[in-house]
Structure formats: structure tokens, C-alpha cells
Design brief:
Oligomer: single chain
Number of domains: 1
Keywords: ATP-binding, Ligase, Nucleotide-binding
GO molecular function: aspartate carbamoyltransferase activity; ATP binding; carbamoyl-phosphate synthase (glutamine-hydrolyzing) activity; dihydroorotase activity
Structural class: mainly alpha
Distance between the termini: 51 Å
Pfam families: CPSase_L_D2
Largest sheet: none
Protein name: Putative CAD trifunctional protein
Order of helices and strands: HH
Strand content: under 5%
Number of strands: 0
Length: about 90
């Protein structure tokens, strides 16, 4: 069936969305904009591949990891030795 149900709507894109798009090759912002204009998901061409539609499931042969970075140098009297939690 080509029937879809929206279970949640988040009207903004974040830096994490940009990372997810880059990691998966799936153009989240482009697809979200088209959907908000009323274009059905099966009618949206994937702007990356130019062949598939936005309904395709990306197949990945790699793993992407986002690692937090805390710039402790900007804080006075803070130990640069961190453990399993932020200071």
C-alpha cells in the first residue's frame, strides 16, 4: 500500500539533521520542504541519486559516529582530564 501516516512533525532542522543527511546520503531538508509543500512522498525524486524516489531506504556499507568535543581550554581552573561525564 502507498498509504503513510504521520506520527510526529518536527518543523525544524538541526545540526544533527545535517549530520544525518551527510551520513546517509538522504536529503532530509529537501524532502521535508517538498512534503511541507504537499508533494506526496512517492513523487519526490531523490536529489542525490536522481534516479530513486524519496521512499527508498538507503543501504549503507559504513558506520558513522558522532563524538562530542568539549573545549576545556576556555575554562579557567578546570582539569583537562575528563572521565565518563562532562565537568
Amino acid at each position: 500500500s502507498e498509504e503513510y501516516f504521520i506520527i510526529e512533525v518536527n518543523a525544524r532542522l538541526s545540526r544533527s539533521s545535517a549530520l544525518a543527511s551527510k551520513a546517509t546520503g538522504y536529503p532530509l531538508a529537501y524532502v521535508a520542504a517538498k512534503l511541507s509543500l504537499g508533494t506526496p512522498l512517492p513523487d519526490i525524486k531523490n536529489s542525490v541519486t536522481g534516479v530513486t524516489t524519496a521512499c527508498f531506504e538507503p543501504s549503507l556499507d559504513y558506520c558513522v559516529v558522532k563524538i562530542p568535543r568539549w573545549d576545556l581550554a576556555k575554562f579557567i581552573r578546570v582539569s583537562k582530564n575528563i572521565g565518563s561525564s562532562m565537568k
